[in-house]
Amino acid sequence: MIQLIEDNRTAPLCPHCEKPLKTVSCQRIKSSLGVRFLYFCGQCRKTLGVSHRKGFWMG
Ligand SMILES: [Zn+2]
């Protein structure tokens, strides 16, 4: 069983530019499956991931 620990003391690193993630940018994508969000590094603009939920407020 893996335990999830909230850790705000260290900044996560971007896997692409390996700089600490200070900001994560997001863009709204409209698809046939609903609205999704694409997250990308604020420094190198490479994509970190896409949300699989319909939005922040739903699901
Ligand atoms: Zn980056």
Q: What does this protein look like?
A:
- The protein has 59 residues and is mostly beta strands.
- The chain has a domain of 41 residues.
- Helices cover 0% and strands 34% of the residues.
- It contains no helices and three strands.
- It has a three-stranded antiparallel beta sheet, with no helix packed on it.
- Strand 1 and strand 2 form a beta hairpin.
- It is flat and about 40 Å long.
- It starts with 23 loop residues before the first strand and ends in a 9-residue tail after the last strand.
- Zinc ion binds next to loops.
- The site of zinc ion has 8 residues, from loops.
Give a quick precis of the structure.
With 59 residues, this protein is mostly beta strands. It is built from no helices and three strands. It has a domain of 41 residues.
What order do the helices and strands come in, and which of them pair?
Elements: E1 24-31, E2 34-41, E3 47-50
Antiparallel strand pairs: 1-2, 2-3
The chain binds zinc ion.
Q: Keywords, please?
A:
59 residues, single chain, 3 strands, mainly beta, 3-stranded antiparallel sheet, binds zinc ion
CA radius of gyration: 14 Å
Work out the helix count.
0
User: Mean pLDDT across all residues, rounded?
Assistant: 87
Strand tally is 3
Share of β-strand residues: 25-35%
Distance between the termini: 24 Å
Poorly predicted regions? none
One letter per element, helices H and strands E, the order comes to: EEE
Bound molecules: zinc ion
What global shape is seen? flat
Look at the helices and sheets and give the structural class. Answer: mainly beta
Largest sheet: 3 strands, antiparallel
Widest sheet, order of strands: 1-2-3
Helix-residue proportion: under 10%
